[in-house]
Amino acid sequence: MVDFHQNGNIATLHNLRTRSHADMTYALETFAQTRKMSLILPCLYSELATDAMPNILAELSKVTYLHRIIIGLDRATEDEFRHAKQFFEGLNQNHVVIWNDSPRMKALETRLADLGLAPSEQGKGKNVWSSLGYLIGCQDSAVMAIHDCDILTYTNDMLARLVYPVANPTFPYQVAKGYYARIGNDKLNGRVTRLLVSPLLIALKRVIGDRDYIDYLRSFRYPLSGEFAMRTNILPDLRIPSDWGLEIGVLSEAWRNLAPKAVCQVEIADAYDHKHQELSPEDAAAGLNRMSVDICKAIFRKLAADGTVFTANVFRTLKATYYRSALDLLEAYYNDAQMNGLTIDRHAEERSIELFAENIMRAGQFFLENPHETPFIPTWNRVHAADPDFLRDMQDAVAADTAEFA
Questions:
Q1: For all residues of the chain together, what is the average pLDDT?
Q2: C-alpha angle with apex 256: 238 to 169, nearest 5 degrees?
Q3: How far apart are CA 83 and CA 11, in angstroms?
Q4: Predicted local confidence at residue 283, as pLDDT
Q5: Cα–Cα distance between 134 and 327 in angstroms, integer?
Q6: Are 37 and 156 in contact (CB under 8 A)?
Q7: To the nearest 5 percent, what fractions of the chain are helix, strand and coil?
Q8: Residue 358 region, left (φ>0) first, then alpha (ψ -120 to 50), else beta?
Q9: Which SUPFAM superfamilies match (predicted)?
Q10: 22, 190, 324, 390 from 297: Cα distances, Å
Q11: Helix or strand or coil: residue 241?
């Protein structure tokens, strides 16, 4: 995406192909002398067997500026945890594998539950939250980055470009969000961003009027990317959603806590491909079906917190406006794909739009019927206030797991 366009809301840092990876790496090594950087990898055990993970490991082993890598491991047995530790031994950096299903970690979760502070459900949100807690407890990193573990097109240049805006001490950015073109197998991908989020934000602006928050979200070229970097001083007050609204939730937290000039988006890849979720129209609790509802709820909750009043009539109008907006965008995406020699299955895309339209109503109905829902995991500041020893005990639990299951 070689251009230099700025949207006026948040800074966009482009890849103009004028600086070498070696030069950027040297700059990051210089920054790392006074600003330690850590990487968090939220990982399912099953991802170790994919084509993506060995390449990610090989690329990360070339990185010279990272202080620590934290791997949050989900859905692993004891033997699988042992295997995961061996798998990640190929990393050249200081690293730790957090076995989130270990008896010690489960005991800590029960301790939080007794305080009413435990995450309400398992998943990526809880994994990221636990890993952030471990990093906060280390008290030695100034910069943190997160990316997914299923990226088929991963290179360590992606990490360098992602972390640079918050690692550079002369830049004002506290949060950097990665963006890229979603292309793979000669197809235009990124269905949920293209067919749900973009037309939904257009529809919201038409139905409820101008809102700064809507303009802010529309400023991001790929708001659902799983790649972002932050300065660690903001982590203790970060509220992580426990559902599939994690990416929108993090952007909303940046909006709540920071000035727009402290947030940027950065181009990290020419093309990006990873594991694709199924639409799962027959199962409301799976795939993009579930994801679309959670994303809608995350956006509705944030707008309501800023004073927007939602009613059943508003959601009915929003559904109709969204549907028309999505079909209009589909025409543009189809033409864009054709011009670039890519394919789009228009029938499948329209089926997705129809499902997303219904899920806007479902999310709206759930929102109206559950006004007291609090899907956010408590901030680490709150956990520390309720249990001052918790972060230290988490560090001890991870160390004990690492030692016992060597």
A1: 93
A2: 70
A3: 42
A4: 60
A5: 44
A6: no
A7: 55, 15, 35
A8: alpha
A9: Nucleotide-diphospho-sugar transferases
A10: 43, 20, 21, 31
A11: strand
Q: Can you give the pTM of this predicted structure?
A: 0.94
Across 135-139, 345-349, 369-373, least confident range: 369-373
Mean pLDDT of 207-211: 94
Indicate if the pLDDT at residue 287 is higher than 90. Answer: no
Alpha-carbon span 199 to 375, nearest angstrom = 25
What are the distances in angstroms from CA 293 to CA 134, 285, 290?
Answer: 30, 9, 5
pLDDT value of position 2: 62
Task: Enumerate the H helices of 139-197 as residue ranges.
Answer: 156-167, 191-192
Q: What is the pLDDT of residue 241?
A: 82
Q: CB-based contacts of 303: which residues, under 8 Å, 6+ apart?
A: 204, 208, 211, 213, 214, 310
- Say what percent of the chain tops pLDDT 90: 84
C-alpha closest to that of 272 among 144, 128, 148, 123: 148
* Res 167: pLDDT: 98
Tokens standing for 272? 């990006």
Q: State how far the Cα of 315 lies from the Cα of 104, in Å rounded to an integer.
A: 45
Q: Both tokens of residue 314?
A: 């508003």
Residue 43's CB is within 10 A of a number of other CB atoms, namely: 28
| Burial 203-219, CB ≥16 within 10 A → b, else e | bbbeebeebebbbbbbb
Give CA separation, 46 vs 49, 76, 84, 280, in Å. 6, 8, 10, 20
Query: Would residue 397 be called left, alpha or beta, if left means φ above 0 and alpha means ψ between -120 and 50 degrees?
Result: alpha
Mean pLDDT, rounded, for 26-41: 98
Tell me the C-alpha distance between 338 and 179, whole Å. 22
Beta strand 228-231 pairing with 175-179: antiparallel
Counted residue by residue, the chain has a size of 406
